[in-house]
């Protein structure tokens, strides 16, 4: 039972961090939502949970730093569609 508790507690197999330019991305990334990742390889492409987001706002610049998680190595969604801009 103790082993199962550790698995449940540490169930996130894939995690990552990054930074994005909100003007180029086209929308604000929100914590506790799902976001599609493409171009990272078959093991990492797919939907990820947005764990945290930090906003950096300067004159003429709006960036976000984020942390993503997923509890499986291979995604259950094989192709992430492009965002409709």
Protein architecture, described:
It is a single chain. With 85 residues, the protein is mostly beta strands. The protein has one domain. The protein is built from 2 helices and 4 strands. It has helices spanning 2-9, 22-25; strands at 14-21, 34-37, 46-58, 61-70. Strands 1-4-3-2 form a 4-stranded antiparallel beta sheet. The longest helix is centred in the first third of the chain and has 8 residues, at 2-9.
Main β-sheet, spatial strand arrangement: 1-4-3-2
Structural class: mainly beta
Query: What does the average pLDDT come to?
Result: 81
- Give the uncertain stretches in residue-range form: none
Q: Could you give the distance between the termini?
A: 48 Å
**Overall body shape:** globular
Order of helices and strands: HEHEEE
Multimeric state of these chains?
single chain
Percentage of helical residues?
10-25%
The Cα radius of gyration reads 15 Å
Beta-strand residue fraction: 35-45%
- Number of self-contained structural domains: 1
Keywords for this structure?
four-stranded antiparallel beta sheet; globular
Provide a quick synopsis of the model.
This protein is 14% helix and 41% strand. It has 2 helices and 4 strands, in the order H-E-H-E-E-E.
């Amino acid at each position: 039972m103790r082993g199962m508790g550790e698995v449940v507690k540490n169930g996130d197999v894939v995690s990552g961090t990054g930074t994005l330019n909100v003007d180029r991305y086209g929308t604000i990334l929100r914590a506790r939502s799902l976001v599609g990742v493409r171009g990272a390889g078959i093991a990492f492409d797919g939907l990820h949970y947005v764990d945290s987001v930090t906003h950096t706002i300067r004159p003429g610049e709006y960036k976000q730093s984020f942390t993503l998680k997923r509890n499986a190595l291979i995604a259950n969604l094989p192709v992430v569609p492009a965002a409709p801009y």
